[in-house]
Amino acid sequence: MNTRVFFRGNARKRAPIARRTGKKSGMQLAHEQFKLFRSIFVLAILLFLLLLTGFVITLGPLNISMYDAYSALLERFLPSYFQVDALTSRVVWNIRFPRIVGGLMAGFGLGMCGCVMQAVLKNPLASPFTLGISAGAQFGISVAAVIGFAIFGGPYFIIGNAFICALLCSLLIVALAAIKGATSENLVLAGIAVNYFFTAMSQLLKYFASDEQLRIMTNWGMGDLAAFSWANSRILLGIFLICFPLLISRSWDLNIMTAGDDAAKSIGVDAERTRIFIMVISSLLVATIVCFVGTIGFVGLVAPHMARMVIGGDHRFLIPASGALGSLVLVSADAVGMNAIAPTIIPTGIMTSIIGVPFFMYLMLKGKRKEFWT
Predict the structure, then answer these.
(1) Alpha-carbon span 51 to 67, nearest angstrom
(2) Model confidence at 23, in pLDDT bands (50, 70, 90)?
(3) CA-derived radius of gyration, the chain
(4) How would you describe this protein's topology in the membrane (predicted)?
(5) How many CB atoms lie within 10 A of CB 333?
(6) What architecture (CATH level 2) is domain 109-366?
(7) Is the C-alpha dihedral spanning 169, 104, 336, 300 positive or negative?
(8) What is the pLDDT of residues 125-141, one digit of tens each?
(9) Can you give the pTM of this predicted structure?
(10) CA-to-CA distance for 358 and 70, rounded, in angstroms?
């Protein structure tokens, strides 16, 4: 018998048997296991945030146990099963829990926006604040405090200026980059130019400001969750529910763009259009966060790097993981700032850097020597 014909016939017989058994290759099994690990990692962070919320509520002058903290939260939805005294309920719902909710939403938004900005700009130092968005918001606050001009009146006298100027700053960056082509290099250069310009304008207004006006500008620039309320949370939640699905919908495009613009175009992804879309949507979310909590610049930079070190660069998992880690960093830092030297409260923006930078450096030194952001 011809040997070649014999083995060819056996190969034909074996192939259907292998398909029927449903066996997967080692590479497929490893991919599915890592995919499961990434899903578990994100769920574990969310579960830890739930536990952290109960613990942070217990911190403060009024002694509240974790059982009372969770009971006060559940009492609003299941009053027949959970009951706490009126004072505990008011402290939890009116003072402590709104601040935590603000930290969770602001941290999630900053971490998520930092992740997508680093992806579209291909720059590990990109964040919502290194590109000038915070500088635009600071300029809006300076105009309201020193000149007295505000776009909105009433309770939104100051934060309205911060939102509009931060959003206009972002749109100016996109417009400048679009004139020369919305490449990652042009966006970064436009962001640096706009950042320096608005920073200089804010410094000029500070030079003519009175002591009271200077105090308002300085306190807002430190970043704090103290002014966050349920009314603010509804506005931020509405913007978040719009922006989060839009950013997640571009996960595959972001994965493809990591190979370069030319490779993305060959597959059918318009890199420049995707880059502008991501920058506009993330800028809208960041501008909303900044106008309520001020400048908290470290979270959007470090949270994506922490997530990348653990779960890799698949943006289907990296975007929610970066947001969850951003919430974890911000809520933890705010809790430490409130209780480290009580009754004095350290601004949240300061504590995020004091706590987060050493931890981030530890992860960098401990991790393997490779590029985590590509």
Answers:
(1) 11
(2) low
(3) 25
(4) Multi-pass membrane protein
(5) 27
(6) Orthogonal Bundle (1.10)
(7) negative
(8) 778 777 778 888 888 88
(9) 0.84
(10) 32
